[in-house]
Specification:
With about 150 residues, the protein is an alpha+beta fold. The protein has one domain (about 5-150): Alpha-Beta Complex (Aldehyde Oxidoreductase, domain 3). Helices cover about 30% and strands about 35% of the residues. It is built from four helices and nine strands, in the order βαβββαβββαββα. A hairpin with a 2-residue loop joins β3 and β4. α2 packs antiparallel against α3. The protein is elongated, with a radius of gyration of 16 Å. The N and C termini lie far apart (about 40 Å).
Length: about 150
């Protein structure tokens, strides 16, 4: 399965094809491009990736999550190229017998993808500037960002 694409992601198509007779819970996460970040107006994002490695790593994360959380199925598709405001940048869908496993696995997958996979976000602002940013604003068992630790104190 190719986990990266330059075309718009149709999460409804992914979700429609995501059925399993043993799944009592299916969770869909869609990462959407918002119009602001840290008080600055965002016009759009552009994503780049080292595609051969990124596809392989996403597949490995999905296989690991299926085993770890006893999933019936899991999928992750990340957009590359220009993504407009309100556009879908990434989708993760998980299916399991119960909602706890489906939710936990979904969060686990998106956090691992954002932390580990070589996908880079280029953020463009209304003032004409742009920044390469970290793809991750997340907390996982293996990694915590300092801004989350500061908020907890």
């Amino acid at each position: 399965m190719k986990h990266l694409q330059n075309a718009n992601i149709s999460y409804s198509e992914i979700f429609d094809e995501f059925r399993h007779p043993s799944s009592g819970a299916v969770v869909l996460f869609s990462g959407e491009v918002r119009n602001n970040n840290k008080g600055r107006e965002v016009t759009h994002l552009e994503y780049e990736a080292y595609e051969p490695m990124a596809n392989k790593m996403i597949e490995e994360i999905l296989v690991e999550a299926k085993s770890r959380f006893k999933l019936n199925q899991a999928e992750c598709v990340h957009r590359l190229g220009k993504v407009e405001i309100s556009g879908c940048a990434v989708v993760v869908v998980t299916g399991a017998g119960h909602r706890k496993e489906a939710y936990d696995a979904n969060r686990y997958i998106i956090d691992k993808v954002k932390n580990e996979v070589p996908i880079w976000k280029h953020e463009f602002f209304a003032d004409g500037t742009s920044e390469w940013g970290q793809n991750c604003d997340c907390v996982t068992d293996e990694h915590e960002h300092s801004h989350h630790q500061e908020k907890a104190e």
